[in-house]
Amino acid sequence: MDQLAPREELLARLHESILDTEPEAAAEAAQAAIDGGVDAMEAIRTASDAITKVGDLFECGDLYLPSLMLAGEAMKRSMAILSQHISAEQASQKKGKVVVGAVSGDIHDIGKNLVATMLSVHGYEVIDVGVNVPPMEIIDAAQRERAKFIALSALMTTSMPYQRDVLDLLREMGVRDRFYVVVGGGPVTPEYARAIGADGWGLSAVSAVKVCDRLLEANSTPAQSTFVQE
Questions:
Q1: Are 99 and 181 in contact (CB under 8 A)?
Q2: Is 5 helix (H, G, I), strand (E, B) or coil?
Q3: Which domains are delineated in the chain?
Q4: Burial of 101 (0-12, 13-18, 19+ CB in 10 A)
Q5: pLDDT number for residue 222
Q6: Contact at 8 Å (CB) between 205 and 178?
Q7: What is the rounded CA–CA span in Å between residue 130 and residue 69?
Q8: How many other CB atoms sit within 10 Å of the CB of residue 9?
Q9: CA distances to 35, 117, 134 from 2, in Å
Q10: How many CB atoms lie within 10 A of CB 122?
Q11: In which residue ranges of the chain is pLDDT below 50?
Q12: Are 117 and 205 in contact (CB under 8 A)?
């Protein structure tokens, strides 16, 4: 297929490369789409549809974590190319900023990275603050970036209390109503998320996107919104 291939073929190639979890092929398909005159936002919608299907396959057990990670990398590689061709008006249509991080005591980044990737490709502007991040640093980043969301990952029971510390600090500082706080991670349950006062809980990276979308759609103030779990 060359750069003169029909638009439908170029988009199909991009879609299939992500479904097939092939990062290099996805990057090539993204570039081919741009070279072939395909609108960048149309290509991004096609890629987003593919990664959503990958997420659905993962959630129902038909796809395993290594493949999900490869698909996420394929999406990331294609987005790196496509995003360069988005107009200023299109770029302003982002849903909002999300500060994503693994809390103090947690150095695991696979789940956090997947959440960051999935949020990014679904229209959120992601600020990834890394792993083992103290509560105050997370809050500082959220305030500095004027984020709408704080997404906290904890994959160890010993690090879970730091999710609570972030929420306690937000309340003590009088800024709790500025941010939707979403929590997740292996040992984190929806019951725990409710108990610490989070706005939402997600089982997986795909769920995290759905939680953020539902909180935005509810159009209520953070901390006064109905708890969302996926």
A1: no
A2: coil
A3: 7-90 (1.10.1240.10), 94-229 (3.40.50.280)
A4: buried
A5: 85
A6: no
A7: 17
A8: 13
A9: 9, 29, 50
A10: 19
A11: 1-3
A12: yes
Number of residues in the chain? 230
Count Cβ atoms below 10 Å from residue 39 Cβ, excluding itself: 16
CB atoms within 10 A of CB 45: 12
Q: What is the pLDDT of residue 90?
A: 61
User: What is the reported pLDDT for 123?
Assistant: 83
Provide the token pair at 207.
């769920």
Q: What is the pTM of this model?
A: 0.72
Residue 194, pLDDT score: 97
d(CA 43, CA 33): 7
Burial state string for 155-173 with b = 16 or more CB within 10 A and e = fewer than 16 = beeebbebbbbbbebbeee
Kindly tell me the burial class for residue 68, based on how many C-beta atoms sit within 10 Å of its own C-beta (0-12, 13-18, 19 or more).
buried
pLDDT at 219 (0 to 100): 82
